[in-house]
Amino acid sequence: RPLRHWIRFRAPPAPLIVSCLSLSLSLSPECGGELTATYGSINSPGYPGNYPPNRDCYWTVSVSPGLLITFAFGTLSLEHHANCSFDYLEVRDGSSETDPLIGKYCGTSAPPPITSSSNKLWIKFKSDSSVTRGGFRAIYKVGKLPLRCGPLLAR
Ligand SMILES: [Ca+2]
């Protein structure tokens, strides 16, 4: 008898159904990924349509050692906020969210092209629960290290 009470409280049917529905909706369209080609592009989920709310997308660009990555926006249109606290694109100089922040972007003011200091970039797109815009599209390409780093060019 105590067991029946426990089950009734721990598994209420209605909230379970709701959470399954919202989970499947929140995963489409897909976003994020691991990029290893010498050039490529990334865009917000659903681009050029509005991105969906409540998304967290992660991309890593990882190319051969000795190459640097230049990352440039084609378009940027995210919900505006003074500190980009709602929807934003975050770019870090490395392979994880603990690497140095290059920039956090929102609104429509796309920055000039970014160049990494190594062969890896980490990118995150986040949207909050309300107000969506057209999103972003960005391209990247790789280039060799500056000539002063000559020995590394020998790879
Ligand atoms: Ca938003």
UniProtKB/TrEMBL annotation:
It comes from the Eukaryota. CDD domains: CUB. Transmembrane segments: none annotated. Residues 1-33 form the signal peptide. InterPro entries: CUB_dom, Serine_Protease_S1-Domain, Sperma_CUB_dom_sf. Residues 31-143 form the CUB domain. Keywords: Disulfide bond, Glycoprotein, Repeat, Signal. This is CUB domain-containing protein.
